């Protein structure tokens, strides 16, 4: 789960309780919330001719868009297990939402119920701290996977983004010791990674070949640290990745 800072309004007086760095309606604010700026970018570089039941080599480029170093780990994607986990997550979200709504109905909040001795900013913050956060239900992924991926046992590191390095031809690798079987080339915050994929043996002719895996990377939450004056917190964030390799 990625943490962001959003705008909140008081339900009683419609005043802003918490404001982000930018206006929520501004383009600059919306751009900063794009996953493109927080999740490593994945692009297909080359793929060998695909044959049913035969292993082929896939080269994928990973790019770190953040200002913090991250580590990439590959995990196996099990669609049946994901569906079961999704059902349990949806049930838990619905239960928590019903519990929150029932508490709101029992204890309605208003500015008039707050102590008069408190100042307006602190009272507004107390209201915002009691407001439940918005929870989005998990969505089912309707994607058929017909190609197996050999999951690498080792992980690799992506250095932080450096705009000046784009114009540097020295090819600095940051003295990172990579697995030569996994990482084929790297420069700055980019790395070319080799994956072995095998289309299923009963693949029909002219079918679109799709492979999938889970990418686990370290997400650094800097928004909460700026607000609370704390060190940036790091989380292991998992992303389901589906690659269309062609026919």
Automatic annotation (TrEMBL):
Annotated compartments: Cytoplasm, Cell cortex; Cytoplasm, Cytoskeleton, Microtubule organizing center, Centrosome; Cytoplasm, Cytoskeleton, Stress fiber; Cytoplasm, Myofibril
Domain of life: Eukaryota
Subcellular location, principal: cytoplasm
Pfam (any one): Dynactin_p62
UniProt entry tagged with the keyword ATP-binding: no
Alphabetical list of InterPro entries matching this protein: DCTN4 (IPR008603)
A single Gene Ontology CC term: myofibril
Keyword list, A-Z: Acetylation, Coiled coil, Cytoplasm, Cytoskeleton, Isopeptide bond, Phosphoprotein, Ubl conjugation
Subunit description: Subunit of dynactin, a multiprotein complex part of a tripartite complex with dynein and a adapter, such as BICDL1, BICD2 or HOOK3. The dynactin complex is built around ACTR1A/ACTB filament and consists of an actin-related filament composed of a shoulder domain, a pointed end and a barbed end. Its length is defined by its flexible shoulder domain. The soulder is composed of 2 DCTN1 subunits, 4 DCTN2 and 2 DCTN3. The 4 DCNT2 (via N-terminus) bind the ACTR1A filament and act as molecular rulers to determine the length. The pointed end is important for binding dynein-dynactin cargo adapters.
Similarity comment: family membership: Belongs to the dynactin subunit 4 family.
Protein name per Swiss-Prot or TrEMBL: Dynactin subunit 4
Gene from which this protein is expressed: DCTN4
